Amino acid sequence: MRHHVRVNLRRSLGVGDAIIIGLASMLGAGVFAVFAPAAQAAGGALLWALALAAVVAACNATSTAQLAAQHPTSGGTYAYGRAQLGPWWGFVAGWSFVVGKTASTAAMALTFAAYAAPTGWERPTAAAAVVALGLVNLRGITRTAHAARAILVVVLVALTVVVAAGFGAGGAHLGAEAVLTSEPDTVGWYGVVQAAGLLFFAFAGYARVATLGEEVRDPARTIPRAVLGALGAAMLVYVLVAVSAQHALSTDGLAESTEPLVDVVRARAWDWAVPLVVVGAAAASLGALLALQAGIGRTALAMARERDLPVGLAAVHPTTGVPHRAETAVVVAAVLLVLVTDVRGAIGFSSFGVLLYYFVANVAATTQAPAERRFPRVLAVVGAVGCLALCVTLPVGSVVGGVVVLAVGVLYRLVTRRARAAGAPSPARPHDD
């Protein structure tokens, strides 16, 4: 028996707001950082890796959209997995999302600090950014959407300049035709798949729309449109950025760069644009950080409601209508991670967790009744297989770390369930395994 009253979140977001939040999540620090490690893995076949990541992301998006329309509540795949497959499936998805995306939050904050902070002040600046945006989220989801819209404008301006510079570089390093026709054979398909797994880190932001399912108006209509709209816009931007970056720097130059998009404008001798790209990278990191904290907080809220996380995290603030305790817990955890982690390691670890999260989403989508399914079941099957393939080909350290953290989560649930059973002789609810 529960000892708290469930309070629903407020439905205040329309299609445009939801698209902005999703797009701000996908056009975050990843677009400024992820192409370098992906180019290291895929070589000249970077676009093949991007295409593979996009196909898996599209399958995941269709599964997420139709599940969110059927289950318009907070929690995303955690809620869908519980409803369609059972509590353990939901827990695996929720735990993977919360842990992986909290690490991603730290990566976004550190990326912001790398551009914006004086030398030696990166970690304190990153921690301050986490706290500041946590306070924005605590003021309400409409404030989150407004802030995301302003940040997205700055990011799109910076990326437009990067693309213009890249295509204007005269092909001094790698012609556009060579970029578009590079074959995977030069690096092998394993390298392409590994790069796709890393690139998936940048695609995963559309999940934020689904985690806000309890806060959008007319969710059956809004969520599918917002998920697919945000993903389509992000795909277009990524292709343009990838082609222009390879065109300007060459594959080797891109792979070796620590500031790839800044180096693109430098290659064109557009030194005046460097501060603009730096500001864009900082803004992108903040936008993704803002949306990430909102999404993680809502998933933690859903898990706490089902007692898969401490039940106190299920509280919703009576004035702002946000899960304030869950949001605060996310901020504290992210600040701690900022003090001990690094950006590149967080990308691989986050990809592992998010790919596992979407694997559960795709499996759940295969169980939907025909009346609830908006897309062919084969897309969910392809998405599930694709997620597993990308997951196991990630760098070994990311896979090992992901498995260990998943095992810790499973152990936590087993221990807490046994403790509750020992303290409460009444039978468990019928749907709890």
UniProtKB/TrEMBL annotation:
GO cellular component, one term: plasma membrane
Transmembrane domains' residue ranges: 12-39, 45-68, 88-115, 121-138, 150-175, 187-206, 227-249, 269-292, 330-359, 379-412
Name under which the protein is recorded: Amino acid/polyamine/organocation transporter (APC superfamily)
Pfam families: AA_permease_2
Subcellular location(s) of the protein: Cell membrane
Record's keyword terms, sorted: Cell membrane, Membrane, Transmembrane, Transmembrane helix
UniProt topology in membrane: Multi-pass membrane protein
